[in-house]
Fold this sequence. Notes:
The protein is of the alpha/beta class. Helices cover 32% and strands 20% of the residues. The strands form two sheets. Strands 1, 2, 11, 12, 13, 14, 15, 16 and 17 form a nine-stranded mixed beta sheet that branches. Helix 10 (247-261) links the parallel strand 9 (230-232) and strand 10. The chain is globular and about 70 Å long. This is ornithine decarboxylase. Belongs to the Orn/Lys/Arg decarboxylase class-II family.
Amino acid sequence: MNSFSNEEFDFTFLDEGFTAKDILDQKINEVSSSDDKDAFYVADLGDVLKKHFRWYKALPRVTPFYAVKCNDSKAIVKTLATLGAGFDCASKCFLIVSNIGVPPERIIYANPCKQISQIKHAANSGVQMMTFDSEVELMKVARAHPKAKLVLRIATDDSKAVCRLSVKFGATLKTSRLLLERAKELDLDIIGVSFHVGSGCTDPETFVQAISDARCVFDMGTELGFSMHLLDIGGGFPGSEDVKLKFEEITNVINPALDKYFPCDSGIRIMQSLADTMLHQLSRWQLTNCKKSCIKEQSGSDDEDDTNGKTLMYYVNDGVYGSFNCILYDHAHVKPVLQKRPKPDEGCYSCSIWGPTCDGLDRIVERFDMPELQVGDWMLFENMGAYTVAAASTFNGFQRPAIHYVMSRPAWQLMQQIKEQGFVAEEEEQDVSTLPLSCAWESGIEHHPAACASTSINV
Length: 459
């Protein structure tokens, strides 16, 4: 294959001796002389590469399908396309993927309830794989895309998830048989089963039960004459380390379940839709626009035990109607990291952090102990990659933050090698282990002891 340039991906190289912190400082310096000191992102594409290798090491039988809805940035989509990932599309965003040259067999239209017009778009684009969970959807597909390769989405026990999805999507085992029979009558092709245990799943055994149920539906389909060969085990995996249930803890439960119900010699292709698992390492800086010193009764916190008899309210230039919508939608808990190093003898105050809109709900952090900041100081929020800027609005006229992508040269060289020779996880493991980990941790930004926790969003 021909080589490609970083201009195609729209990122800045991290030259030897430079870190992501240098890019952050450079961007801050660029806006320091301007009145337009807007919030911005710095995204390390090398972290996507590292997590791709980590994925194959932990789930060697499962092909990752990136959920484009969580962040449809061209740089991220092209990076994952180069790595050979598939793509999970919830709308005709599959056109974004198709337009960069991803073949349709690497795309699944994974929305169980689709507009007829978009089903037709899929047919015209050659996208055949798509999910369903109702008879009405079968009727629409039969009319608009009769050659589709259908995947039946089943309901799961998502009671242990932060964000439950089976209240909206998924067929029961009893309904599944009826749907398979109806699909047979309509002469539609059912190729497999999908499920989603819910975002932020806290019990890996939920995957085991869902895989067992999928096996039952596979057997039903085979009995009716369908060639069942695809299992989609959905999402719900964490993308950062500051979570109770770690990525490998979940995969250590999933792998034996797959081997039990879908053995290697069964010929079943296994895939998984993912978002945070690939995209947590996207950090954002935002400016402190204003601050307010309050007595206890006026505190932004409900807790009355405030030190020094004073609390501080900070107003910053992005909020829950922008990138921090993850607080409302995904129950995220974000914590700031300070750009300025606090003095050793500097005291801390109970602080709350608020977004820029005129809405009283626009609160990012309810209570957090940190040194006193000044207007113009910057805060860093790490692990803001998925379901943040993609779902941001322009409420109150505030614009979405710009994203600046970076990648180290070793990571870029490895990308070139993968494009030319293909992906071989074991051979490249040593090379990947040398790639930078995090904008803040790797660059030497000093974390205040109380300000070390980063975002935790599981989707």
